[in-house]
Amino acid sequence: MTETYARTTSAWRNWAGTVTARPARTESPASVDELADVLRRAHADGLRVKPVGSGHSFTAAAATDGVLIRPDLLTGIRDIDREAMTVTVEAGTPLKRLNTALAREGLSLTNMGDIMEQTVAGATSTGTHGTGRDSASISAQIRALELVTADGSVLVCSAVDHPEIFAAARVGIGALGVITAVTLAVEPIFLLTAREEPMSFDRVTAEFDSLVIENEHFEFYWFPHTGNCNTKRNNRSAGPAAPPGRVSSWIDDELLSNGVFQVACSLGRAVPATIPSIARLSSRALSARTYTDIPYKVFTSPRRVRFVEMEYAVPRERAVAVLRELKAMVERSPLKISFPVEVRTAPADDMALSTASGRDTAYIAVHLYKGTPHRSYFTAVERIMTAHAGRPHWGKIHTRDAAYLSEVYPRFGEFTAVRDRLDPDRLFGNDYLRRVLGD
Question: Which residues contact 206 (CB under 8 A, 6 or more apart)?
């Protein structure tokens, strides 16, 4: 076979700058066959292998000192099946390109997260999600996976073919093999009406259950050091489309949410005592608005201010209690928190290591501006989350290990058994997987 893929030895850093890796070599195979060859040679050389996407994980899930595989050449749509209503896409395709390509075809994913810079494989492998009453994460929309395993063989799994692997690999954290293609469920493109509205913390928490039940997609942001929240309700609409005006959109999504917020975060990092006052101003800056557009233009938004993040999934019925404990902790502590706390939901699903596996879920995410010391805040948050059987997002900062995770994931042993079968020599292992999955 002629080698057509690129090979380099440069260092790799993630988006947030929290992880740096110096692989022995970096390779960009252009086909499944070339990828299989890369794995065989890595095994022969005694090197471990990790695929990496766009680097939006805050953990070292993709770090390696062996062979780092970039999926830059494994991109594009392979097939659209309008009868089955599925799209098969190469694993390295950025979600942004997938969403725009589907829109041109009059199609859409049912649900998605709030950014779309990640690759398809990276997003699904770590359990990337948005918010939804009935619709779950991107991984839950997978109908089949193509996986190159440790011995270089190609395995296609689905609910029918290798269902036990399918249950594990849809959120596989890169532990089972290298995903080369994903088949996702799609539907005819539709319109969503977004209603964004300020609301008090007390009102949101008092009405949380009804807000979730009455809306297809509900989320909110609480601004620490205040009693203020900003809520967002997304529901399907018969139209017509009424996107936000160019000027008002720029003011809300770029000037306020990115430009002014960047300046505020920089000031808060330099002078922490200013943060509560900034939070009070920020929480009042975004006014109510309503607009209607195609899904990816409503679900997603630009995120240009860099940060570090911890997110935990807790049983949905415990969400309000957790939030009230979190607010009380911030109020009695000397902590100064410049970023809002994000709250979303998801229905229970059937994937072994999905954070919503087997239970209706609320996601509570905390952030701090890049470069701000985060350990004290995140440690205090994690203490609250773990007291409520919280499950950490696989791509976001946490300190949990296999002993804890095996207690909060009933199907943890099912996943590790599949891993033992597919990768007994831990070709795809690294320090992060050793910590969260054990050896």
Answer: none
Q: How far is CA 151 from CA 35, 52, 386, in A?
A: 11, 19, 37
**Dist. CA 355–CA 392, nearest whole Å:** 7
Q: Which amino acid is at 322?
A: V
Report the Cα–Cα distance between both ends of the chain, in Å, rounded: 35
**0.85 surpassed by pTM:** yes
301 by Cβ neighbours in 10 Å (0-12 / 13-18 / 19+) ranks as middle
User: CA-to-CA distance for 155 and 162, rounded, in angstroms?
Assistant: 9
| Residue 255 binned pLDDT confidence (cut-offs 50, 70, 90) | very low
Position 259 confidence tier, pLDDT thresholds 50, 70, 90: low
β-pairing, 107-108 vs 187-188, is: antiparallel
Closest CA to 51 of 151, 148, 153, 140: 148
**Residues β-bridged to residue 188:** 107
What three-state secondary structure class fits 385? helix
Sheet containing 178-185, strands listed edge to edge, beginning at the edge strand earlier in sequence: 77-81, 86-90, 178-185, 142-148, 154-158
% of the chain residues with pLDDT over 70: 93
Tell me the C-alpha distance between 411 and 406, whole Å.
Answer: 8
Contact of 111 with 219, CB cutoff 8 Å: no
Cα separation, 183 vs 255, whole angstroms: 37
Instruction: Give the strand pairing for 25-28 and 67-69.
Output: parallel
